[in-house]
Write a structure and sequence with these properties.
globular, 20% helix, Catalase HpII,  Chain A, domain 1, alpha+beta, 242 residues
C-alpha cells in the first residue's frame, strides 16, 4: 500500500514535470536524442540472481537513445542518458541509465559530464527475488568521445560503439553481465519521438523496486501526456576534431 508521504511526493513531482513539459512543448528533460540500433549479448553474471536476464545467455535486439538531459550546449557539462528498448518474451522492455559517479555512494548520484565515454547507472534499484541491485553500462571508445550528437554519429559510423553491461548489489562491486553493441545509422528522433518508461515496460523477471520508483512513475506519466512537437531542430553543438 502506498504511504501518504509517497503519494504526496509523487503528486508534487507529477505536477512539476507536467508543467515543465507544457512549457517545453514536449519532454521536460532529454529533449533531443540520437537513436542507434542495439544488440545485447548477455552471458550472465558470475553469481546467479535467480532471474533469466541476469543468469542466462541471450542475444536481444533493440534500439538505444543517447541524449543530454537539460540540453545546454557543449562544452557545458550535462547529465547524459542512454535509454534502451528491446523485445523479450513477447513484450517491450525499457532500461534507463544516466551518468553517475563510480563510488558506492556516487553510483546513486547524477553526475554532469562532457564526454559520452564513462559510466552510466540505473540510479534506482531493481528487485531480483528478495535481493536488490543496480544496473549499469560502461561506454568504451578509442578516444574520450565529446558529448555532442555530431561526434556520436561519426563514431558510430566508424564502427560499433561497445558498452559493458553491468549489475551490482547496491553496495557491492560491479559484475559483468554482457555487452551492448550500438551501430549506425544514427538518427535524430525529433520527427518520431520515442518515449521510454521502465515502470510501464519492465525487464521480465526484474521489476523496479523501492518507493523512489513509485514517485518517478508519476513524473513520467505526467510528462508523457504532453506530446512532443515534431520537427524541432536538433542542436548537436560543435566538437573538436577526433
Amino acid at each position: 500500500m502506498e504511504q501518504p508521504w509517497t503519494s504526496l511526493v509523487r503528486s508534487g513531482l507529477a505536477a512539476t514535470f507536467g508543467a515543465a513539459a507544457h512549457l517545453r512543448q514536449g519532454r521536460p528533460l532529454h529533449p533531443s536524442g540520437l537513436v542507434l540500433d542495439a544488440r545485447l549479448r548477455l552471458h550472465g553474471t558470475p553469481r546467479p540472481w535467480g532471474t533469466p536476464f541476469l543468469d542466462r545467455p541471450a542475444e536481444l535486439r533493440g534500439v538505444a537513445r543517447l541524449s543530454r538531459s537539460v540540453g545546454v550546449p557543449w562544452p557545458l557539462p550535462d547529465i547524459l542518458g542512454i535509454a534502451f528498448r528491446w523485445q523479450q518474451e513477447g513484450t517491450s522492455a525499457d532500461l534507463l541509465l544516466a551518468t553517475t559517479g563510480r563510488t558506492v555512494l556516487g553510483r546513486r548520484l547524477l553526475r554532469p559530464a562532457t564526454r559520452w565515454t564513462g559510466l552510466y547507472t540505473s540510479l534506482f534499484p531493481y528487485r531480483a527475488g528478495e535481493r536488490r541491485l543496480l544496473l549499469g553500462a560502461l561506454l568504451h571508445t578509442p578516444d574520450r568521445l565529446p558529448a555532442t550528437f555530431g561526434a556520436l554519429a561519426r563514431a558510430a559510423e566508424d564502427g560499433p560503439l561497445v558498452l559493458e553491461l553491468l549489475a551490482a548489489a547496491p553496495s557491492g562491486p560491479w559484475e559483468l553481465l554482457g555487452q551492448v553493441h550500438l551501430t549506425a545509422p544514427a538518427a535524430p528522433d525529433e520527427d518520431r519521438p520515442m518515449r521510454f518508461n521502465p515502470l510501464r515496460h519492465p525487464i521480465p523477471g526484474l521489476p523496479p523496486a523501492s518507493w523512489l520508483n513509485e514517485v518517478r512513475d508519476g513524473a513520467y506519466a505526467a510528462a508523457q501526456q504532453v506530446p512532443d512537437q515534431p520537427g524541432k531542430p536538433e542542436k548537436p553543438g560543435k566538437a573538436p576534431a577526433r
